[in-house]
Amino acid sequence: MKKKGSTVFLAEDIKKVVSIPVFGNGRIIEPKFAEEIISSNKVDAVALARPLFADPEFPKKAMDGEDKKIIKCVACNKCMDLIMKMGKGAICSQWKKRDKAQKSRKGEKNA
Ligand SMILES: Cc1cc2nc3c(=O)[nH]c(=O)nc-3n(C[C@H](O)[C@H](O)[C@H](O)COP(=O)(O)O)c2cc1C
Ligand code: SF4
Fold it and tell me: How far is it, in rounded angstroms, from Cα 68 to Cα 22?
């Protein structure tokens, strides 16, 4: 699941034979890519799992045109390993970047 849009081709095939909305999924880490596969009618919408876990503000930043501020999932799969192999709660290897960005935002507000 490291390839961009890794399972979108499956959703695309499903969309051809059903009449309900079909979501594309699998390493959709850029809003532009999401727009691309929706506007080309490959899928009706996208579902984000790890990208939202890495940065829950992904949709807001995309809506605000702040794509560059999105903390991207790097597909390291630490989250999945913790849950599925070790039976622990998931954390994301990229949260440090988010914490850093949040701290600098708070610093800007207090300045
Ligand atoms: C922590 C975690 C738990 C997941 N649990 C499930 C699950 O229970 N069932 C399932 O079908 N997919 C599960 N997935 C897979 C996601 O739904 C998704 O298909 C996959 O992560 C690829 O998409 P993404 O690049 O948006 O993460 C899980 C993914 C993660 C990261
Ligand atoms: S732990 Fe790795 S794979 Fe999981 S959401 Fe964070 S960057 Fe993505």
Answer: 28
